[in-house]
Amino acid sequence: MFKGSIVALVTPMTDEGQVDYESLAQLVAFHLAQGSAGLVIMGTTAEAATLTMAEQHAVMAKVCEQVAGKIPVIAGNGAMSTSETIAKTQFFADLPIDGYLTVTPFYNKPMQKGMLAHFTSVAAATDKPIILYNVPGRTGVDLLPETVAALAKVNNIVGIKEATGSLARLAELKALCPADFLLLSGDDASFAQFMLAGGHGVISVSANVVPAAMSQVCQAAFAGQNAAALAMDAKLQALHQDLFIESNPIPTKWALKRMGLIKSDFLRLPLTQLEPIHEKRIEQALQKAGILEQE
């Protein structure tokens, strides 16, 4: 179910900082038309940390209604504590989502034993599939392959979004986890190599901007067309890098506004809008990716 190019969707906002549901609908329609294999709602890229629970629920409800089962909708339910993560999981339980993306508890830096207990407890609170999310650069803690292998034995823990960007880590996970355990890249810059080395897909920031191209790389990788996959990905490398020139999703929102897909690139504090000095660089990356015409 959760394979191919899955987009970590932004949350469009008005210049006054309210959720822009009109732009949200436009984004969802864009991804349905462009071949995205799924949507992650309320992940890091969605600025979930700055949205109220009511806002998060409302955004998910709108997306689920529009998608209507055409592609999977995955809800981000991560939090610093196990109790809060379980509460979020249950708060979203009335929605027709297809699963959860559960990040490692951030800031408090639990040990492996604590993360094993955390994810096991969260999984017991739902009958929906859970994808683990390991992103040490954001959370300050690394979910190690041995712990992932232990969690893979839990019936509804079905995969991991691995954002270290390490192909050696992928090899360890493949060696330790069951063959049907989903291995999804969380690092756009290395995702093509990740897939060619046996990964099943990507949960992507770049896919906000280039969903069709990301999907095509995935399809080429699935077909064993290694040279084609790498050639297509090469055109996206500048974008993969430059969408992180400032904290995600600052550059992505600017790019989406530049493309006319959202009306405002507003972000809630403490995130701020893209520095003007970086605008030309993002434009050039969009041009290299074939999104904007060369000037």
UniProtKB/TrEMBL annotation:
A Pfam family of this chain: DHDPS
GO molecular function: 4-hydroxy-tetrahydrodipicolinate synthase activity
Cellular location(s): Cytoplasm
Annotated keywords: Amino-acid biosynthesis, Cytoplasm, Diaminopimelate biosynthesis, Lyase, Lysine biosynthesis, Schiff base
Residues annotated as catalytic: Y133 (proton donor/acceptor), K161 (schiff-base intermediate with substrate)
Site entry: Part of a proton relay during catalysis: T44, Y107
Signal peptide: none
Reaction(s) catalysed (UniProt annotation): L-aspartate 4-semialdehyde + pyruvate = (2S,4S)-4-hydroxy-2,3,4,5-tetrahydrodipicolinate + H2O + H(+)
Residues that, per the record, bind pyruvate: T45, I203
Coiled-coil residue windows: none
SUPFAM superfamilies for this protein: Aldolase
Enzyme Commission number(s): 4.3.3.7
Broad class of enzyme this protein falls into: lyase
Pathway entry: Amino-acid biosynthesis; L-lysine biosynthesis via DAP pathway; (S)-tetrahydrodipicolinate from L-aspartate: step 3/4
Keyword Flavoprotein: no
Superkingdom in the source lineage: Bacteria
Family that this chain belongs to: Belongs to the DapA family.
Annotated HAMAP family: DapA
Cited function: Catalyzes the condensation of (S)-aspartate-beta-semialdehyde [(S)-ASA] and pyruvate to 4-hydroxy-tetrahydrodipicolinate (HTPA).
Subunit structure of this chain's protein: Homotetramer; dimer of dimers.
Protein name stated in the entry: 4-hydroxy-tetrahydrodipicolinate synthase
High-level lineage: Bacteria, Pseudomonadati, Pseudomonadota, Gammaproteobacteria, Alteromonadales
